[in-house]
Amino acid sequence: MKVKSVRGPVAKHYFRDNQVHAAIAGTVLMLAAAAVVALAPSLRGRAGAPTLAERMPDGLAALLGVGPGVSFDTAAGHTDAWFLSLAAPLVLCALALPAAVRAIAGCEATGEMEWLAAQPIERAQVVVERFVAVVLVTAQAAVPATIMLVLGGGIGELELAPGLVAWSMIRVVVLVSLLAAIVMMVSALTGSLDMSVGVAIAAPIVAFGLILGGESSARLSPVRWVLGETPAADGGTTIGVLMAVTILAACMLIGSAGFQRRDIIL
Amino acid sequence: MQPVVTTEGLTKKFGRTKAVLDLDLTLEPGEYLALVGRPDSGKSTILHLLLDLVHPTSGRARVVGFETTKAAYQIHRSVGWVPAHVVPPRRVTIEGWLDRTRSYRRSEIDGSLRTRVIPQLDAALTDNLSELSQAELGLVALVGALQKEPELLLLDEAIIGMRAHEDLLEELVGEYRSHGGTVLMTSRDLAKAGAMADHVGLLDSGDLIARGTIDELRQLGRQRLEIVFESDPREDIFEASPSVVGAVVQGNVARVLVHGKTEPVVEIARLNGAKEIILHESGVDELVADLRNLGVAS
After folding, report:
1. What secondary structure does DSSP assign to B120-188, as a single string?
2. Does the N-terminal or the C-terminal CB of chain A have fewer CB atoms within 10 Å?
3. Chain A closest CA to B196's CA: distance in Å?
4. Looking at the complex, does the CB of residue A122 fall below 8 Å from at least one CB of chain B?
5. Is B16 at the interface with chain A, CB within 8 A?
6. What is the ipTM of this complex?
7. Parent domain of B250
């Protein structure tokens, strides 16, 4: 008699396995958010701030999320430049991408997969549930910083709408999840640790590098689709987020199918 | 009752390397079979194929009633698996890991085994897995495999892996078998595997060259007897025995090479005043070489 496999335990276990890393990343990100909140009052209305943004090369201004009408001395520009466009994606990438590498290829390289893949679970579950765990760990690490930014409205006069802060952080998590999905797809298809690590390094460099390359290349970057030009100021576009989620789902489908078909590396 | 394992022409190649060749294997319920061979003879690959960790290049395998390539996770529900080298997740306790095994199943698992066995390792259920030796990890994995009451237990190089706790390994496997469990084990140690299992399958270069009890296999190859007599025996003492393929007598010691049953040779020796008879058991290398040279295995 066929019995359906149990859903959820792989995600739960991998979520637990990454708690130490999540705590470290969450703390670093919260401290970065605290610094943003603390510095906000001193930057407000500084005479040189708008000029500084205007003098920046277009690519760098785009990378930092400052643009026409949004400069460092505004609450949105300040938060975009130092936190949403840089600190948050980079810290969360440092958490999520190694976790994505360890999830499949790393697990095969150590030999742990030989036991896990022989448990009564479907191979696709290993890929999808471990990816879900990576997303949850990323979101978990983003929560303290999000609370800090929301509280910053009262404590540090950041004056950003809580909804906009939360939406911006969700989009950062979506962006990082998309990059993690690409890493996991390669990992699941090949089982190659070297290739997975290579993609984990290359993916954020390419994604953020395209922004630096000017407006035409920036349009190709998932950073632009998901975060928009000035994340905290304009809230980005829902279509961009949906596009990222669609690609992410396709990565999971391809990765799961590939992992099912190939041999486990033993 | 249908066999627990059936393979038909099961073949696995890794690039140009042939790991398993045209394997036809049947394992009946309650049977204990040890696959014995040198390193890289394909032993572990057979277990990996039965668990569908690797897919066959050709041929097919059915385990506990399911086709390996079609319903692997159904097979995993009913098969207990202990890999040769156990690598647990980091920062997990013994209990946490055993609970993980339980969490993958819908049905409840008897937890009494762990409370009985783990203290015998001088460990507590709350100890971290990173504190355990490879032999201890192997036994924890065995407890994890046995607690789900599997129809089939697959042990990869368990004799070497759990050498430090060999008695406990034999006790647990014995208990499992007393409830009708079926075991497929791999090993490089012909003598130990032969003593533990009902039957031994001899593997060489991915080819199952012989299968039988350890005594039957030894009789297929050449056995070496060293016989010490009370006084110097005649040089042609063993000529009448058809199973003797060679004999050298030096003083009161005779070294005899036997192909087939040793009992007639032992009987001749006793009648001629043998005071000590030593059977030098062939290792896996010698037996494989013998079977190849004698044409028993192609």
Report:
1. GGT--TTSBGGGS-HHHHHHHHHHHHHTT--SEEEESSHHHHTGGGHHHHHHHHHHHHHTT-EEEEEES
2. N
3. 24
4. yes
5. no
6. 0.87
7. 222-281
